[in-house]
Amino acid sequence: MQRRFFVSVVAAVAALVAGAAQAQTALRVMTHSSFDLPKPLLAQFEKDAGVKLQIVKGGDAGEMLNKLILSKAAPVADVVYGIDNTLLPRALAAGIVDAYPGAAAKRNAAAVMADSADRSGVVAGVVPVDYGFVNLNIDKAWFEKKGLALPKSLQDLSTPAYRDLLVVPNPATSSPGQAFMLATIAGLGEKAAFDWWAQMRANGVKVVKGWSEAYYTEFSRNGGSRPIVVSYATSPAAEVFYSKEKISTSPTANLFLTGGVFRQVEGAALIKGGNPAAREAAVKFIEFLRSAPAQQALQTTMWMYPAEPGVVRDPVMQHAQEPAAFEALPLKALTEQAAGWQQRWTQVVLK
What we know:
The chain is α/β, with parallel strands linked by helices.
């Protein structure tokens, strides 16, 4: 009897130790610096999955991807969120992502990672999580005060009336900057696009390192001198959401010009060589990102549109209308030509 009791106690202790070890399993999640979901939502995921989240913010999306590529031999993450359709070719070429076995790869998505995807939107294991549109935003009060008509085309911006009015993030250091450059190429054609950029250089376009500097320092809405800025279609909604005063209309507006709108699709993926003990939890995390609670929350935390069809839109998103048309480039073109386009842009605009 005593022996059976002793064996039972040992077994119970072993089970408790094993359970504690399982509960303490760390799930390393690499994200870009804009990743933001409510803490209670993340805590609930940890409880449901039995893991401890380690969110590692890797900087801008491009910088984040560089860190994953450089650590390929000894991965610093088990799952990544924030690889977008402009960075997808580099991620695939580096071979850092694994195939995805979860349910999100078997159902429809509202946006696809590349033109080669089926209706699930998944490309080589990268699962679409959200999408947005990079486009021009304008300061409505500035234009009303000056009595200047809004430009109706990108070409208008190269005329004297709009000299020194536009600020753009550098495509080499900013993902929205890169997306806007790609939009001009897709919408105008390569030659016409770089001719336009040359004209804009002569017309006083200002180039800054990143979106934050463009929007919060140079944009006239925030005290700068430039009333036109490269931003997002959701930015007017964010202006309403964060306003200190209760307002019913946004002080900014979108300009959806041909050659000036790019659809950015952000995805999540399993990291090849990640911790095998965390693999099941990594799959659960991607499914969590596509769950209704996360898809609803990201609308007013990361200011993107949900990739999961049928998710209810937050009321403030009425100020974030989607464009009727946008520019896109085939994955093959992005893979073969994006680096060359970037170098050419630098030569035309900065040197």
